[in-house]
Amino acid sequence: MTGSADFVYETRPVRVVFRAGAAVSAVPGEARHLGLRRLLVVCGSRGETTARAVAEALGDACAGLYAEARMHVPVEVADRAVAVARAAGADGCVAVGGGSAIGLGKAIALRTGLPLIAVPSTYAGSEMTPVWGLTEHGVKRTGRDPVVQPRSVVYDPELTLSLPVPLTVTSGVNALAHAVEALYAPDTSPLVSLMAREGVRAMAEALPRLAAEPTGLDARGRALYAAWLCGACLGATTMGLHHKLCHVLGGTFGLPHAATHTVVLPYVLAHNAPAVPQAMAALGRALETDDTPRALRDLSVGLGAPRSLAELGLDEGDLTMAAEQVAGLPYANPRPVTTQGVLGVLRAAFEGRDVTVSY
Ligand code: NAD
Question: Where in this chain does the record put each Fe-containing alcohol dehydrogenase-like C-terminal domain (predicted)?
Answer without folding.
Answer: 168-350
